Amino acid sequence: MPIDTARPDAHGRAFAASPTPLRILPRIGPGRARRANLVLRAGLSLAAVASGLGGQAHAQTSRDAIAIRQPASDQADSPVAQDPQVSTPDFGLTGHWGGLRDDLHAAGIDISGSVWSEIAGNVSGGTRKDVTQVSGWAINLDGDTEKLFGLEGGHFQVSFTKRQGPDINQRAGLEMLLSPQEQYSRGQTYRLSELWYQQQLGPITDIKLGRMGMGDDFGALPCEFQNVNFCANQIGPLVGNYWYNNPLDPLAVRLRVKPGKFTFMAGVFQSNPNDEKEDVALYHKGANGVTVPIEAGWASLVGGLPGSYRVGAWYNTARADDLLDDANGQPFAISGLDPDRKRGRYGAYLLARQQVTGTYKEGPPGPETTRGLTVFFNAMQADRRTSRTDSQIAAWLVYTAPFAGRPHDSIGLAVSRENVNSRAALSETLADPASTAPRAEYASELHYAFEVVPHFVLSPNVQYIVHPGGYPDRHDIVVLGLKTMLAL
Length: 488
Hints:
Strand content: 35-45%
Helix content: 10-25%
CATH class: Mainly Beta
Number of helices: 8
Order of helices and strands: HHHEEHEHEEHEEEEHEEEEEHEEE
Strand order of the largest sheet: 1-2-3-4-5-6-7-8-9-10-12-13-14-15-16-17
Low-confidence stretches: 1-30, 47-52, 54-87
Structural class: mainly beta
Number of strands: 17
CATH architecture: Beta Barrel
Number of domains: 1
Mean pLDDT: 84
């Protein structure tokens, strides 16, 4: 799954600039009644899909579950990009719904869904041997405002998700910094995950506002592995008490400018601990500040093969406890006073993706590897005053189409280091001198993604974790997993 500095929408489509001036007032014509009828049919279809998924398990949105593949085209031996013309989306396992999906797409409405599960069992390490499954589903509705209302350059999305199932990290006493099941987080419950509108403002500028995940646009990464160290945006796992990724999406606004191969973005996201409540709500009271991320990216073509390179930073305005000092600058573990309350939390990151061998094609979201090796790298640093896990560095390799006759399979190998802040470690050892100071946790994963049929992928994996929790005196952990992804 390729990354680009421009984050595609949940169906993998790029949000293209409109070459003509925007029409601000909707067109009203004889097709309005037909569109209203299609919207009604879409609502009934959504209800039917939701009813059918009610007994399924766990969730992420479709952009993180499985890419909706475009029809394959013949590829030349050279890495020159191909540009297939696709008139309609490649729908998932449930097909065209007797032509209803085609009619809806023509009218400006796309309905999609995804179901997935992650099974994990520890064969070494932890306090007990166990096997758990987390699973879920998502339902997404995309709208094209030009087709629906005559408003050019507009696009909106609504997503509902459900997650359920216990975490092997907790059940087996693994005490890892990050879970071997990336889908266990933010409450095993129903959520209104996304409700946003995006509008093209000119040839290179667009704005997006509503409820949306920070990692959808900023620090965006693919999610092909099962361990959370290598799945999607990593700032959330690092500082998850104020950086919220899908399905926990805060109120926000994001502005993006794309001059040529460069992309510049800035956003403002509400910081509200009450968004973590397990409910379906449009708004919660209790905001304590905002998080402001910025990012600059470059889409490259190195040696005739695509890549992207991005740098970003963020600042959160809320107050948080200092990890070591009290208000007098002394360790609160010794003084017995409350931790000092610091204003402002911040950090920075670097992301890189580069295909190094093989071939690719130009798809709607950007370059897509059809065969060969792609290298990924990320590094991030959070402030050391308030972040217990203050840095992470990770790299992984993905080889697409490793065998003849298996064009959509892939093999992935990943390694990471997540650091425990030395100030937090000192505070903990001052409070308990007999304890071991935590340092860093090292995680790795090897997986094979096997496409059983289009839109149905099984990915067995093995994970190996050294110094779980960052403690060098703990036994290494081996986890066997199976990730299943279906696009409906």
